[in-house]
Design brief:
The protein is of the alpha+beta class. The chain contains nine helices and twelve strands. The protein has helices spanning 3-13, 35-46, 56-62, 78-84, 143-148, 172-178, 188-194, 198-209, 215-228; strands spanning 19-21, 51-54, 71-74, 88-91, 97-102, 105-111, 126-128, 134-137, 157-160, 165-168, 180-181, 212-213. An eight-stranded mixed β-sheet has the order 1-10-9-2-3-6-5-4.
Length: 229
């Protein structure tokens, strides 16, 4: 069983255990991270919160590319983030976020999200349409929960400012090394109904990053095309 298979299986059984890549095993240097993003990471950490660079920024740094954005994930709530930064504003009702402003530059900070389903939705924190599309998603959770609810494995990588390690819950590093773009999880219909734009992102990421869409995701793409018709 590959790391990706193991991580996905763990996600279905409960909180997955991450593969931890210490600083000596990855090529991300703080010199390549935006200074303002580092300021936000350090202040969150110093205030006692978990703070990680996440998503496309980590992916691009591992690929040796210059990230377009440096997004941060944390266990601090949006209100707690605003309490730490005078230059912060909260945005979004569907997906509550904190934007820390440095002139024209925006560092986006998101609180770790928990999974959701139709049985749990409706309590004000999460709302789904009749078709299963996410209308509101503000149920907070752990970093493990946050990882497995993201779209693609290569976008579910976390650079932990505490020890400069990369945390991989879904086999994203292995997929990057193989040049593969893979959807997370084993329920494609639900994932696509949650956010139908995911397949458009798959095509865009594949073209932009030179990653091949894996066979199972291609099958999901064909199903989603039929579903939209």
């Amino acid at each position: 069983m590959t790391q990706a298979d193991s991580a996905t299986q763990s996600a279905t059984d409960g909180a997955p255990e991450p593969r931890v890549y210490p600083r000596s095993e990855h090529g991300i240097s703080r010199a390549a991270i935006d200074d303002n993003a580092l300021k936000v990471l350090y202040r969150l950490r110093d205030a006692g919160f978990r703070a990680c660079l996440v998503g496309g920024g980590v992916r691009d740094l591992l690929l040796g590319r210059e990230p377009k954005d440096f997004d941060i994930a944390t266990d601090a709530t949006p209100e707690q983030v605003r309490g730490l930064f005078r230059n912060c504003r909260l945005i979004g009702r569907r997906f509550r976020l904190a934007h820390v402003l440095f002139g024209r530059e925006v560092i986006e900070v998101a609180t770790f999200r928990a999974p959701h389903d139709e049985a749990e939705a409706g309590g004000g924190e999460v709302a789904l349409s009749d078709e299963g599309r996410i209308l509101r998603d503000n149920r907070y959770g752990t970093i493990e929960q946050d990882a497995v609810r993201r779209d693609f494995s290569v976008n579910a990588l976390y650079y932990d400012i505490e020890d400069f390690s990369v945390l991989d819950y879904t086999g994203g590093v292995e997929d990057l090394r193989k040049g593969v773009l893979r959807l997370i999880g084993d329920d494609p219909e639900t994932r696509l109904r949650e956010d139908p734009v995911r397949m458009l992102r798959a095509v865009r990421f594949s073209a932009k990053l030179g990653l091949r869409i894996d066979a199972s995701t291609r099958r999901w793409k064909r199903r989603s095309t039929s579903w939209r018709r």
